[in-house]
Amino acid sequence: xxxxxxxxxYFPFGGLQRDFLSIAQACxxxxxxxxxxxxxxxxEEPENLEIILVPTVGISNNTRHQRYSEWVQHHLQLHPAxxxxxxxxxxxxxxxxxxxxxxxxxxxxxxxxxxxLTPRYKHYAAFEKAVFSPDVKTKxxxxxxRQIADFKKHYGTQDARxxxxxxxxxxxxxxxxxxxxxxxxxxxxQNIPENALVLLQVGSDFKRxxxxxxxxxxxSLPEDLRKKVVFLVVGQDKPDRYQTLxxxxxxxxQVRFFAGRSDVPDFMAAADVLLHPAHQEAAGxxxxxxxxxxxxxxxxxxxxxxxxxxxxxxxxxxxSPFSQEALNAALHKALGQTETLHHWSxxxxxxxxxxxxxxxxxxxxxxxxxxxxx
Length: 374
What we know:
Elements: E1 2-6, E2 9-10, H1 15-29, E3 33-38, E4 40-41, E5 50-53, H2 61-78, E6 83-86, E7 95-98, H3 103-110, H4 119-132, E8 139-142, H5 145-155, E9 162-164, H6 182-189, E10 197-202, H7 206-209, H8 211-219, H9 223-226, E11 229-234, H10 240-249, E12 255-258, H11 264-270, E13 273-276, H12 285-292, E14 297-300, H13 306-312, E15 315-318, H14 324-336, H15 338-354, H16 360-369
Parallel strand pairs: 1-3, 1-6, 2-4, 3-5, 6-7, 7-8, 8-9, 10-11, 10-13, 11-12, 13-14, 14-15
């Protein structure tokens, strides 16, 4: 088959981008030809993918995305594909990979009347409706059951169009693939004391991922515990305001920011706890990467994959509505009881060994090509 993939931006360190690339490569392994339409591509370009840079301009994202969609539709008329797969919501898709939350629900919960009058709202609402409306045939590759209820509430989408995928963690993230001694080596290279309590947060978009919440939780720790903490924040974002906040909270010496990195497994091997108190998160692949690395997790309930932390008994889930005090208490309790962290870590490894957290790319490729009727 000729399969066209639509993705606004590719960069190496995003969860959505990693999923896109793993699914694209699974399609290639199954013998299909893959064409990718992007506005921008950062990093190495795989030779087995046909990458097409869409030439669009516009002051706002919604203008650029509208023109991207129109250009791609025109190109597909001239160069047809057997399947069109979108990793962003847009018209004309056969499959949509649902890594994002329901926009209509987000607007209902967070925005006021005047926001609904903006061009931005009208564009993204129309593009979401073009995917989920009952009178279109797009099928949705879903990551969690939690997402489905919101889309059905706003669009009345038919059940048969939702296809649930297993997670897709790369096997090289698993604890038994770690280089021997990597924990000690990483800490030595980063000048982190062996007896330090290392907290880790990974993810682009620091605001949505709740980095401010994490900083406040670290600052709330009793002084003797707080002095032992080193907090590593990894992700593609501007850290300035968070560095300023860390200074205001008196913890700037314990917080280190890193841009997106390819050695996140080493960070996880060196850490004691992953913090992920996100404001919203459709799934949260980093949560399962932590589990497979044997790293305990403290996460907010809004995250789609948070239920895995509960099921694995590999950390603590902070209930909704969010309470900063609850996060503070959870972090204090976890760091104050090393036997709890050890127990969570053992549970995480067991879960990584006994659950299917790995087969998403192959399953998605089979569904896209029609070889798996679900």
